[in-house]
Design goal:
two-stranded antiparallel sheet
């Protein structure tokens, strides 16, 4: 992705009006690493999202987790990108300790987006945490 960190994205996000915030989210989604179609399966589908969201974890040689993710909705894909910025390429222990919700709260997505767009975020975070916990064991 073109942004180095969630903090850098937030700095830009804060300066934008509502329409430009939507565009930023869409651009973040477009910048996600492509997820192969074969990985978009029932087993990688995040439950409880209004749009389809898939998350697939991979483990790098150094033990850090790298997630591939996608959505069939542009705004939702941008939200997925925000979540991944909070955890991408970290160790399972770092992910377990990360305050993902706190990091995302700074964006006030619930004020910007409909509840349909944000309802699946806790499920996606839970899936990422469960994956990290399982791989840490």
């Amino acid at each position: 992705m073109s942004f180095q960190s969630l903090a850098a994205v937030h700095d830009d996000y804060e300066l934008l009006d509502a329409d430009d915030r939507y565009r930023l989210l869409i651009d973040l989604g477009r910048a996600l690493e492509p997820m192969p179609e074969a990985l978009k399966a029932d087993s990688t589908l995040v439950r409880g999202c209004s749009a389809s969201v898939w998350v697939y974890p991979t483990r790098r040689e150094d033990g850090r987790l790298h997630f591939l993710a996608d959505s069939n909705a542009a705004i939702t894909k941008g939200i997925v990108a925000l979540v991944l910025l909070a955890v991408q390429d970290q160790t399972p222990a770092e992910i377990a300790d990360a305050d993902i919700e706190g990091e995302l709260a700074r964006f006030s997505l619930e004020k910007q987006l409909s509840s349909n767009r944000t309802q699946g975020i806790p499920n996606m975070i839970a899936l990422i945490r469960e994956t990290a916990a399982r791989l840490a064991a």
